[in-house]
Design goal:
Chain lengths: ~110, ~120
């Protein structure tokens, strides 16, 4: 069974640009969550999608957005990039059944903003 | 709101020695608790989880953790560390509710292993 796949793995952008990151969850998983990981703040929850609906959102500005498609694949977008957006962006999927269940993480997309 | 504290930023142990990584949480209800391990260039991998029942839970790679409600702790242990255990370890608390699900992570403990 293939794991969570994130693309691209690495990217470099400049301030003011926007970026779109993609996540393909494990087959059969309907919930996709996104986390930002930085050395200073650690892992922070961005948002969760289930059946194409955003179910929860963390404390991030509106520049951070996401969506989920009917095949459960998800994208997140960051507009007007700032230096502080440099981070590892992790996608995680789970089956979505009930409110428990293990989160399976991808290897992340490392974004560098210059 | 829930929070997780991992008091030790970096721990160094000798191979074969025992290990205990500390985790304290703050959550108003019965918590869902997790330990994840992350190696460089990889995403976090679940070591073990506690939802209810037996307070001593076994995980992969020989790890175990004990939930102590009175101390709001969920410490991770391993009786004999292997060099391959060197990684960063994260404790997390799950906050289900309103049909959604998110984890709050501690800042992590980096484990170094001396051969």
């Amino acid at each position: 069974k293939a794991g969570v796949t994130q693309t691209p793995r690495y990217l470099i952008k400049t301030r003011g640009q926007q970026v779109t990151l993609s996540c393909s969850p494990i087959s059969g998983h309907r919930s996709v969550s996104w986390y930002q990981q930085t050395p200073g703040q650690g892992l922070q929850f961005l948002f969760e999608y289930f059946s194409e609906t955003q179910r929860n959102k963390g404390n991030f500005p509106g520049r951070f957005s996401g969506r989920q498609f009917s095949n459960s694949r998800s994208e997140m977008n960051v507009s007007t990039l700032e230096l502080g957006d440099s981070a590892l962006y992790l996608c995680a999927s789970r089956t979505g059944q009930g409110s428990t269940g293990e989160l399976f993480f991808g290897e992340g997309s490392r974004l560098t903003v210059l | 709101a829930q929070s997780v504290t991992q008091p030790d930023i970096h721990i160094t142990v000798s191979e074969g020695a025992s290990l205990e990584l500390r985790c304290n949480y703050s959550y108003g209800a019965t918590p869902y608790l997790f330990w994840y391990v992350q190696s460089p260039g990889q995403g976090p991998q679940l070591l073990l989880k506690y939802f209810s029942g037996d307070t001593l839970v076994q995980g992969i790679k020989g790890f175990e953790a004990e939930f102590k409600r009175s101390q709001s702790s969920f410490n991770l242990r391993k009786p004999s560390v292997h060099w391959s255990d060197a990684a960063e370890y994260f404790c997390a608390v799950g906050a289900p509710g309103a049909g959604s699900y998110q984890l709050t992570f501690g800042k992590g403990t980096k484990l170094s292993v001396i051969p």
